[in-house]
Amino acid sequence: MEEYNSGEEVSFNADEASVSVKECIEVIIGGLDYNQNKVNQWTASIVEHSLTQLVKQGRPFKFIVNCAIMQKSGAGLHTANSCYWDTATDGSCTVRWENRTMYCVV
Amino acid sequence: MYLKRPTAVQPLQLLTWDTCYFHYLVPTPMSPSSQSVSTTSDAGSQESVDGGTVGRTLQWDTDPSALQLQADSELGRRMHRLGASKIVQIDFVPKELVTYTKETQTPSAAHQSEEEEEDEESSELKASPQTDQPEEEGEAEDSKEAHPRELTEEEREQILHSEDFLVFFERSVSVVERALAEEGDIFFDYSGRDLEDKEGDMQGGSNLSFNRVFHDDHWSKHRVVTCLDWSPQYPELMVASYNSNEDAPHEPDGIALVWNMKFKKTTPEYTFHCQSSVMSVGQIVLWDNRSHRRTPVQRTPLSAAAHTHPVYCVNVVGTQNANNLITVSTDGKMCSWSLDMLSQPQESMELVYNKSKPVAVTGMAFPAGDVNNYVVGSEEGMVYSASRHGSKAGIAEMFEGHQGPVTGISCHNAVGTVDFSHLFITSSFDWTVKLWSIKHNKPLYSFEDNADYVYDVSWSPVHPALFASVDGMGRLDLWNLNNDTEVPTASVTIEGACALNRVRWASGGREVAVGDSEGRVWIYDVGELAVPHPEDWSHFARTLVEIRANRGDGEEEGAVELPA
């Protein structure tokens, strides 16, 4: 398994993570329209790929990845979340992405 | 603020928050060895708990960043500083988006299960259609070929069930079936996506020759044909609606099948399902052939404003652009609907005669070109003329003559040199067919050749003196009034001798479709008999004069000339 330095305090780099996640989204659903039959595949792949990319960064972190894809149909969606953690080292990042037919939030 | 609450297991609980600052509960940590540890905090105070108690105390702390918890250092853990993160909010604002009126839009229940039956045949036929029609399925193919890697089993399943594939597959199945059945242009697409005009290759014939029968074992067995109609745009298409299938209660109650005359296929082009028997229980359902769904696209609600009794008759009047749907039901109500808005009728009218008796309508017909006045037949055997608008809206006149319920009514609609649009014919359970004119309240003539209930009657759309009738013994009669008014000019008994429910002419006037009580639709070619000659119109005018003259001498006395 990968080695990480357990003695250091590394803090979560939200920007780097968000870049990496955005890339994953783009690869998987970039240019596609909302398709109800494929949307399950997409959310699963986005989560899987983002997670593997994040793990590849080699940081000593646990990750939680959540992906929501919503069709643009005129409905509203409102969510909120918060976490209780070690504020020195832990952090979160949210990536919003949209195209003509759907929203994607990771 | 203080809040004491014992909790069982969870160490942390975020109970509430507001926008300015966070409140949360901070438990005092319990080490396994039950030692009490005091926590420090800048603001707010805390209590330490005696380690012997099992419960914990929780307290509010107003300053998130400053709260610190010290883990039990005896266990060798690092010092963690835990705090709450900022709350992440994601908002998508709703937008107004209206397509169909929402109340009439039928729920788009997943109809995957219905289309799964197509998949059984998919394995063999899948290979050939894909190579046969590259241009049509270019898009579907492209999306599949974008992933040239091996499709896993799961992905293959997903693709097979995907809507695009099923749409493509249904179309290609129908095309391949046509190709298998005969030579000809198989690429015609009736759903209107590609509009190529095709010549029909109808076959001529002698007087009344059997062309073919439409019968689908799966769908139309044991169902009574309740209505037939020919498509005005594609003259080789006709739709037949069927009543409920007594043998199979799980199948949908009412279905309508679209049959294609042109090719020798034996399966229907499209099938539509409906929950209640088609033509009954007061609802009107609208299928859109373009949206490849088998369930109705719109359905009117059961409401007192609309029909509460079985809807027996539906007619579309008007031109292609400005048209209305008129429906009449057995509770005497006539409603007019706009196809865009089926949530409530545009107008509705109670059909009462003499201001008291509602008319139980069994049939309705509009004269050619008239969208306001119409005639209806009723269960009591009377025929009424009515108008939709105007000072005399409602029932106008009553035509007496039949002794039994009127089953079918048809207005003259052949266009020619002489205008006969005041004529209409009715059929009834009293074994007769009667010819009427709007101007007289007694029949002009009564055709008494039948020996059973006459179920339906229909004027030819092209020949002025020709009409067809069907009766309960399986007989289809063609009457040419220029030839003979006593007996039908041509008659055939359909094999099987089951009662025939409906008869409709094709728009070209060369074929007749007959529906029977076993769910079969028979198509007969009419041949030379159906072709009108220019002198047929004047001949018919003379025939009418003769009929009237005979009637005047005969027993029909007391006939009243009605104001036009």
UniProtKB/TrEMBL annotation, chain A:
Query: Which key words are in the record?
Result: Cell cycle, Cell division, Centromere, Chromosome, Cytoplasm, Cytoskeleton, Dynein, Kinetochore, Microtubule, Mitosis, Motor protein, Nitration, Nucleus, Transport
Q: Is Cell cycle one of the keywords UniProt gives this record?
A: yes
Q: Which GO terms describe its cellular component?
A: cytoplasm; cytoplasmic dynein complex; kinetochore; microtubule; nucleus
> One GO biological process from the UniProt record?
microtubule-based movement
Supply the Gene3D superfamilies for this chain: Tctex-1 (3.30.1140.40)
GO molecular function per UniProt: dynein intermediate chain binding
Q: Which domain of life is it from?
A: Eukaryota
What residues form the membrane-spanning segments?
Answer: none
Spell out the subcellular localization from the entry. Answer: Chromosome, Centromere, Kinetochore; Cytoplasm, Cytoskeleton; Nucleus
Do the record's keywords include Isomerase? Answer: no
Alphabetical list of Pfam families matching this protein: Tctex-1 (PF03645)
Q: How does it assemble?
A: Homodimer. The cytoplasmic dynein 1 complex consists of two catalytic heavy chains (HCs) and a number of non-catalytic subunits presented by intermediate chains (ICs), light intermediate chains (LICs) and light chains (LCs); the composition seems to vary in respect to the IC, LIC and LC composition. The heavy chain homodimer serves as a scaffold for the probable homodimeric assembly of the respective non-catalytic subunits. The ICs and LICs bind directly to the HC dimer and the LCs assemble on the IC dimer. DYNLT1 and DYNLT3 compete for association with dynein IC (DYNC1I1 or DYNC1I2).
Query: Main role?
Result: Acts as one of several non-catalytic accessory components of the cytoplasmic dynein 1 complex that are thought to be involved in linking dynein to cargos and to adapter proteins that regulate dynein function. Cytoplasmic dynein 1 acts as a motor for the intracellular retrograde motility of vesicles and organelles along microtubules. Probably binds BUB3 as part of transport cargo. Required for the efficient progression through mitosis.
Family as reported in the entry's similarity comment? Belongs to the dynein light chain Tctex-type family.
Kindly provide the name given to this protein in its UniProt entry.
Dynein light chain Tctex-type 3
Q: Which organism is it from?
A: Oncorhynchus tshawytscha
Gene expressing this chain: DYNLT3
Automatic annotation (TrEMBL), chain B:
Protein name (Swiss-Prot/TrEMBL):
Dynein, cytoplasmic 1, intermediate chain 1
Any one GO molecular-function label of the UniProt entry:
dynein heavy chain binding
Composition-biased stretches, type Low complexity, lie in: 31-41
| Keyword annotations from UniProtKB, A to Z | Cytoplasm, Cytoskeleton, Repeat, WD repeat
InterPro entries xrefs: DYNC1I1/DYNC1I2 (IPR025956), Dynein_IC (IPR050687), WD40/YVTN_repeat-like_dom_sf (IPR015943), WD40_repeat_dom_sf (IPR036322), WD40_rpt (IPR001680)
Start and stop residues of the WD repeats:
399-446
The region called Disordered is annotated at 31-61, 103-156
Q: Which SMART domains match?
A: WD40
Family per UniProt?
Belongs to the dynein intermediate chain family.
GO-annotated cellular components: cytoplasmic dynein complex
Q: Where is the composition biased (Basic and acidic residues)?
A: 141-156
Q: What is its main location?
A: cytoplasm
Q: Its GO biological process terms?
A: transport along microtubule
**Protein localization:** Cytoplasm, Cytoskeleton
